Amino acid sequence: MLIIEGWLHFAPGEIDKFAEAARIMVEETRKEDGCLHYAFARDMNDPDILRITERWTDEAALDAHSKSPHMAAFGAGLAQVERVGADIRLYIGDEVRRIM
Amino acid sequence: MLIIEGWLHFAPGEIDKFAEAARIMVEETRKEDGCLHYAFARDMNDPDILRITERWTDEAALDAHSKSPHMAAFGAGLAQVERVGADIRLYIGDEVRRIM
Question: Hey, is the C-beta of A8 within 8 angstroms of any chain B C-beta?
Answer without folding.
Answer: yes
